[in-house]
Write a structure and sequence with these properties.
This protein is of the alpha+beta class and 445 residues long. The chain is built from 13 helices and 7 strands. The longest helix is centred in the last third of the chain and has 86 residues.
Length: 445
């Protein structure tokens, strides 16, 4: 067998195996999900497509080659339709639920298959290549087949881009991007090996369409496996929660060695990779003065006797930076009762401590202000008492003054009457003296 043919067969078998594996995996994992079913149908179709070309290259009979081509064409038409349907579901467009949409997706399949089966419009026959294999000869309407494939690729490209814009979950957007990358690469490689090399350079490789198909399958499979087959499972949800939670999480064995941790814990620890962190004693990341007390508290947690809640401690990384945390810990078990390790969640309380310190400072300021106000009120009360006492004294003085004024008025009245009487008597004396012919004794007023 020619080396080129052997290499090509190996590539085809790789793509075919990956397709069968990923399809079976998706079918076992989420058999009821429509997205998984379409994916399974698609990768199985393209895998069988590659299988037909392997059989064709291994079969030396010319008479069977057109039959292989017709079967391969049918599988190609079905695979393109399934891939387009898959991306419509991925983009979550509303009209994909309409039965007429599904009909429009798949109606070209029987039409193109009948044309391929009953005419030589797409391929007029086969010819023997320098590699000892048969290659299809392009027919008069091969351009229709090329436009059909290009149209489906263009639609898949459009809805991949739409999915990247519409989908909210980061995992789904990454998956859409990876599939878009696979579509773009496989399409351009297909154009090169199917059109440019044979027509421009007269270079024909065995079963050229299988190379872009294999790349297409590989990208879709890696995307699906890497980003979780789009189906939200408890394991994926748990993984996302652990890696995005704001707290620091670590799981340790009964010896206190780290079995796993989330990204936030890894970033704080100062270790570069999770592999470096695994199997490290937890107490290397706990402040030394806190580790002994923590070990005593965790001893009952490891035995399942107690759950640790609200334990205040400090994490310390390789650089010596400290972080005040509140630790909650409990022993985790699987559904069979086997111990998995001690789950520890460290909650950052540095902001809480800062707020508490600010609160205490504010309380202190308020207490001081309260004392100042109390002192001012006390001074005011004292001043008011003194003022009241002064007022009473003034009132008493006013009463005394009124009494004195009354007495003075009486005295004045008495004194004035006496003076008037004296003047009257002096006048009478003067008048009597005048009568006796004597001079007045008192001065006339």
């Amino acid at each position: 067998m020619n080396l080129v043919v052997a290499v090509n067969i190996i590539i085809i078998i790789i793509g075919m195996s990956v397709g069968f594996f990923s399809g079976t995996f998706a079918l076992i994992r989420t058999p009821k999900e429509i997205l998984s079913r379409i994916f399974v149908a698609g990768v199985f179709t393209f895998s069988f497509f590659n299988l037909i070309y392997v059989i064709a290259m291994l079969d030396p009979s010319r008479s069977n080659q057109m039959l292989y081509i017709q079967i391969a064409n049918f599988l190609w038409f079905v695979g393109m339709a399934l891939a387009f349907h898959f991306l419509l579901l991925l983009a979550k467009v509303d009209f994909v639920k309409n039965p007429w949409t599904v009909l429009l997706i798949y109606i070209p399949v029987p039409i193109m298959s009948v044309i391929s089966l009953t005419t030589n419009w797409f391929y007029s026959g086969v010819e023997l290549t320098v590699y000892g294999t048969f290659s299809p000869v392009i027919g008069q309407l091969y351009g229709v087949l090329f436009l059909y494939t290009t149209a489906y690729f263009a639609l898949q490209f459009i809805f991949c881009v739409l999915a990247m814009k519409r989908l909210k979950k980061v995992r789904e957007r990454k998956l859409s991007f990876f599939m878009l990358l696979g579509l773009t690469i496989s399409f351009f490689i297909g154009v090169i090996v199917v059109l440019i090399l044979p027509l421009a350079f007269k270079l024909q490789i065995p079963a050229p369409i299988t190379l872009p198909t294999t790349i297409y399958i590989l990208f879709f499979t890696v995307a699906m496996l890497r980003f979780g087959l789009f189906v939200v499972t408890p394991a994926l949800v748990a993984e996302d929660i652990i890696n995005t939670m704001p707290d620091y999480l670590a799981v340790t064995d009964e010896s206190g060695n780290i079995l796993m941790a989330n990204k936030r814990f890894l970033e704080f620890s100062g270790f570069l990779t999770m592999r470096e962190l695994i199997d490290m004693p937890l107490y290397t990341i706990i402040a030394k003065e806190k580790s002994t007390i923590l070990a005593e508290e965790l001893s009952e947690v490891y035995t399942g006797k107690n759950i640790l809640k609200g334990f205040l401690t400090e994490l310390m990384n390789k650089k010596g930076d400290r972080l005040s945390v509140r630790l909650n810990a409990c022993l985790a078990k699987d559904r069979f009762g086997q111990e998995l390790g001690c789950i520890m969640v460290f909650h950052d309380i540095s902001e809480e401590k800062k707020l508490l310190a600010d609160k205490e400072q504010i309380i202190g300021q308020l207490e001081k202000a309260k004392e100042d106000v109390s002192r001012m009120l006390e001074d005011a009360r004292k001043s008011k008492g003194e003022a009241d006492e002064k007022s009473e004294q003034i009132k008493k003085l006013n009463v005394d003054l009124k009494d004195k004024l009354g007495e003075l008025e009486i005295f004045h009245n008495v004194a004035s009457g006496r003076e008037i009487k004296m003047i009257s008597l002096e006048k009478e004396v003067n008048d009597l003296l005048k009568t006796l012919g004597k001079s007045p004794k008192y001065k006339e007023i």
